[in-house]
Amino acid sequence: MKNIFRQGAISPDFIAEAIAKHQSKHDIGAHNIFLGQVRADVVDGKTTAAIEYTAYEEMALKKVHEIREEAFREFPLTCMHIYHSLGRVAAGEICFFVFVSSERRKEVYRATEHIVNRIKSEVPVFGKEIFADESHQWKVNS
Predict the structure, then answer these.
(1) For residue 109, which of 135, 82, 75, 79 has the smallest C-alpha distance?
(2) Would you give the distance in Å from CA 61 to the centre of its chain?
(3) Domain-by-domain residue ranges, the chain?
(4) What is the pLDDT of residue 134?
(5) What phi and psi, each to the nearest 5 degrees, are found at residue 4?
(6) pLDDT digits (tens, 9 = 90+) for 40-83
(7) What is the C-alpha to C-alpha distance for residues 105 and 83, in angstroms, rounded to an integer?
(8) What pLDDT is attached to residue 27?
């Protein structure tokens, strides 16, 4: 099983390198990317400064592996990369990166939405919103 977790924010350089590595794969005609970014939500008058992510890592990795394998069976994909942050990620930074490739574009749109929705609803990753005043609360996915 591949480890999807990265400590801290997922950098633009990391994303660019992932994209660049696919230039030599000539059977791919389409890529789709989902980037989850931490929002500076206002909750009860307090602004979110960051989210601190934790996970039941072993369980989460097994579930992501299952979702990944099912997606390869359901969609004609060539390649798939999934990364999620652990630790503190500031508002404006990337915390979730899904990169899907296929021969044709229609499949990558459907597959990306399917994969992102399953991960957000089924994988035990938790976010604690840290507000500007350093108070915090557990985030509920929407």
Answers:
(1) 75
(2) 13
(3) 5-20+28-138
(4) 86
(5) -90, -10
(6) 999 999 999 999 999 999 999 999 999 999 999 999 999 999 99
(7) 22
(8) 86
